[in-house]
Specification:
Largest sheet: 8 strands, antiparallel
Shape: globular
Order of helices and strands: HEEEEEEEEHEEH
Strand content: 25-35%
Distance between the termini: 21 Å
Number of helices: 3
């Protein structure tokens, strides 16, 4: 238990350090997000979440994409103890240490676009730390730059 707490404390401190060093490009423009890709719940790379998180999280590696604006977009899938599945289509911008949710997968098996999606800090006290875990574990190389390739992200997430 203490090891996990120390792990999360270390990740939080590293994130704060990385976000304090962020230099933004005033000319940066976000490209339009592609439609949410199909995902396969049987191909997920599981995310190691803290013990207090009851949902299981995983990312389908086939949904990872690095767009020309240096945003890494992906589908993260959640499962509760009864096996109910949910998903979110998100993007992480390493340069500013932010995450945005573009769409949510509903119980009818359809994607529902988020109205007016906004960038949120990965360092904020969000209800779930899955995006923080993704950023630190493989999406953001050296804390504030996007990993070189999807293959690099997948390799880091699997380790």
């Amino acid at each position: 238990m203490k090891i996990k707490k120390l792990f999360w404390l270390g990740l939080t401190l590293a994130a704060l350090s990385a976000s304090a060093q962020v230099v933004t490009d005033p000319d940066w423009k976000e490209t339009e997000a592609p439609a949410p890709p199909a995902f396969n719940k049987d191909k997920l790379i599981p995310l190691d979440m803290p013990n207090y998180v009851t949902l299981k999280f995983g990312v389908d590696p086939a949904t990872l994409i690095i767009t020309p604006d240096s945003i890494v977009r992906y589908v993260v899938v959640t499962a509760n103890a009864t096996g109910s599945i949910g998903a979110m289509y998100e993007g992480i911008r390493c340069a500013t240490w932010e995450v945005k949710t573009y769409a949510r997968y509903n119980a009818n098996g359809q994607w529902s676009a988020v109205r007016d999606p906004q960038w949120e800090s990965l360092s904020d006290n969000r209800p779930s730390k899955h995006a923080f875990v993704l950023a630190r574990k493989g999406i953001c190389d050296s804390g504030s730059t996007t990993a070189n390739s999807v293959a690099d992200i997948v390799k880091a997430l699997k380790n």
